[in-house]
Protein 1
Amino acid sequence: MTTSLDFAALWPYWPELLAGLWTTVTLTTLATVGGVAIGIVGAALRSGKPGVMSAIWGAYVELIRNTPFVVQLFFIVFGLPSLGLKLTAGEAALIAMLVNLGAYSTEIIRAGIQVAPKGQWEAARVLGLSKSQTFLRVILPPALKRIYPALVSQCIIVMLGSSVVSQVSYEELTFMANLIQSRTFLSFEVYFVTTLLYLMLSLLMRQLLLAIGRKWLGSEA
């Protein structure tokens, strides 16, 4: 039994694949920027003196890190409407990715902050800097430099995990691949091309984020 592959048959469907790829890129960009910002805020709260906000944020981090992303997504899509909060598939996908990356980046950034020498805090205090100025100008930059490769890897993991949002009919790359496969029945060809697109996106994203790190943080990764 022989099997012939027909990649040429996918040519008419490239606009759909590229549209899905662009949606994935847009979703990932928003989630990366927002998720890292959430992580910085969370790391600041978790690195300070124990308090109510620190405890609440810690509970949020543990909840997200110990539950599947698909369950988080389904809760936002199907659970929140029961409370009267209705979201589009795109809004739900973005919120799920923000919440997920925010939790993981909180712990990654906090790890970089915890190894900061105490002398940095003391020197900033002697210079008359406020706590917020000390954190943003003295502690955070070297902390980000230390953990930047791990943070980049986590952002890529979240990007790859975005394929799950196809389950709620959000028209990103995997959704389009499934749609094309259902029309053409070219399973191998469709998912082989989709795999290559995700691989290309991962490599480009890594190089872009590392270049940003070298420019703004002086990271050597």
Note: The chain has one domain: 12-217.
Protein 2
Amino acid sequence: MSKQRKPGASVPRTTKSKYQPSAPSNTMTYVLGGIAVLVIAGLVIGGIWWSGRDKGEAADQSALASSSTMIVGPENAPLIDIFEDPLCPVCKLFEQQSGPAITKAVTEGQLRVRYHTLNFLNSKSASGDYSSRAAGALKCVAEEQNADLFLRFHSALYTSQPAEDGTGNITSPELARMATAQGATPATAQCITDNAKVAQAEENAKKSTDELSKATGGQVGTPSVLHDGKTVEGVLDGTGWLEDILGGNKS
């Protein structure tokens, strides 16, 4: 997991570091870093290492189910939970790398996915609430219970992702038109335009963040993936992580 960062702190688009909601200042980072070196040196000299440190615990499955934006795929398939922020450029990279493979696995009945939409990058949008509104739009689309539609709209959000430098934005009516272009009904478009699911999406985001924090020992970042409630490593290194999960199910 990468160093902790302030909500929405800018990340170069070529990085493979995850976004993390909070962090100390740069000065404090250097101070703590120096202390950490001394502490680690002392532990190594003393023959002690952190092999037993807290790496988190399995998240609560019922809580993950209830706080998800959408669940796709058959119940008997391997289960993963994906945590993203619609404004996170590293999440866009994750979608570009793994999105098609995830969609294919879901469509072929090989994978079950619970999508969790976080919103800690709200302040980095021009409107100050884009992540929440996009999460609400995804929830409106999810109400149709059409997995193909949801996956198309989810992908479209990242294809059209606004800049996270405080200047980019997509209005709710524009989100509604985007959903309509993917096949959403007029009722769903109206739901998005009216921000009807934003409050629910924000509540779900908080619950999902709490569960992710539990599973990672407090290291919350996006994108993150859990498999059966436990952290999956290497999700920004291509699709090998997914192949391991699917291959493990076949063995």
Note: The radius of gyration is 19 Å.
